[in-house]
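G., the chain you wanted modeled:
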Amino acid sequence: MNDLTRYHIHRDKMQTGDLLQFSGNGIISKIIKARTGKFSHSSLVINFNEYGRRMTMTAENRGVYPVLLSEYLGEYDGRVYWYPLKDEWDARRRLIGGRMLDMSGIGYDWGSLFTQAIAKVSANPRRLFCSELCFLAYGFDGKAPNPSEMPKLGIFKEPVRIL
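Predicted structure as tokens:
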């Protein structure tokens, strides 16, 4: 279990739609970072205020699903950064959350993940890899970014390391 002190310092400020960027230490993470840069995975925060919970919506080998953020961070092998959305995106948070929840249960996009290693792929909501999920939840379309390109969308405040 990881030390979640940094996460708990910022947890109450995390809102639906904020980006989480992961830089893993595992072999698959290292392969992804060798091709894309600093980050190996992206996911989004879902804030369930009425239940006092922070979840993350993630796309991994079993598909798109929500998971308790503290549980996810507790088991993660690597560093994690929180990218809060800029204030001008606040009015879109509910819509972003709805899009995320609508994508829950969609299968993982293995084909595009491998293609993305050599060329850009168009974002397609039928099957999703991690940064493709985030990109579509924000309402963008076109060529899907890889995890290291997500912060370059220009919609985030300065990042904060939470793990």
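Residues 122 and 142 are 5 Å apart (CA to CA).

Shout if anything looks off.
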